[in-house]
Amino acid sequence: MSRDATRRWLLLIHQLPAKPAYARVKVWRRLQSLGAVTVKGSVYALPATGETREDFAWLAKEIVESGGEAIVCEAALVEGLSDAEMQALFDAARDADYARIAGETRDAGARLAADAPDDVLAEVTTHTARLRKQLDAIVAIDFFGAEGRATAEGLVSGLEAALKQEGETMQDGKTAATPPPGPLKDQVWVTRQGVQVDRIASAWLIRRFIDPGARFKFVRGTGYKPQPGELRFDMFEGEFTHLGDRCTFEVMLGHAGFVDPALRAIGEIIHDIDLKDGKYGRAEAAGVRSLIAGITASSTDDEQRLARGAALLDDLYSSFSGREEDR
């Protein structure tokens, strides 16, 4: 990568007096809310944008007013760290945030599923609203589209849908069905760049069983507005993405109405790899995870990843289909 193509970073270098202690806590909380990551000691970083420059400028002013020292500088290179390593710091921080949201959402969903009384339903509703607010705040500082976002968004959206359905059931004894997306053939299928296991498997399902002529488009994970004739999958606000405790592959499988046991088995493997919750305990998951990791490590080209992943899944499907025929 040339110097001209290198990403720009903002660095906040600061020092605070030992007292008052609340000033240090206040600054730490502000840094967390901005999505800043620690580079070294009291040096924090953000991607350089107009908004982040203003955020760091205001925070530097607060630090100085609290009796501390602060400077903000912009750099094309951060000593000892490549752009990819810097981005990984941000993704890791957001993935930790998303994992917390996902865990709390699963717990709330379990309470709701336990035929809870009205007071528990009210508590879960309040908690869900809080989780949505927290998730929206995390998304706002997810500068590079961390992997955990789809899982957390799907779980929160699924819990919201379950609560809505529960409320409608209590009102008139009926459950509302979610209207399905439009026709699935002759569409451009859009997903996030840097495809991993769920996107690779979902693309295979689309091209092999839904639309053999499917075209795929790879975009950044944030801020993409779909064009007419496009369907998004495994991405924020996508037509097909994580829902409740189901990964995108499982959601698409259910929507298409497939009852093929071999596809169901593959869906369980993809679920265990993608959501990491061990729900199905598939013995094959570890091997498939290693093979997918090898595919993604050997190429950054998304079409190549899909092609190599498709070959793997074709073999896996044949294996499971053969097992069913032998029974």
Question: Describe it for me?
Answer:
It is a single chain. The chain has 327 residues and is an alpha/beta fold. It has three domains: 6-81, Alpha-Beta Plaits; 84-172, no CATH class; 188-326, no CATH class. The chain contains ten helices and seven strands. It has helices at 21-34, 50-65, 83-113, 118-140, 148-172, 197-210, 248-256, 261-275, 285-298, 302-326, and strands at 9-15, 37-40, 43-47, 69-75, 188-192, 215-219, 230-232. Strands 2-3-1-4 form a four-stranded antiparallel beta sheet, sandwiched between helices. A three-stranded parallel beta sheet has the order 6-5-7, with helices on one face. A hairpin with a 2-residue loop joins strand 2 and strand 3 (43-47). The N and C termini lie far apart (55 Å).
Ordered list of secondary-structure elements with their pairings:
Elements: E1 9-15, H1 21-34, E2 37-40, E3 43-47, H2 50-65, E4 69-75, H3 83-113, H4 118-140, H5 148-172, E5 188-192, H6 197-210, E6 215-219, E7 230-232, H7 248-256, H8 261-275, H9 285-298, H10 302-326
Parallel strand pairs: 5-6, 5-7
Antiparallel strand pairs: 1-3, 1-4, 2-3
Helix pairs in contact: 1-2, 3-4, 3-5, 4-5, 6-7, 6-10, 8-9, 8-10, 9-10
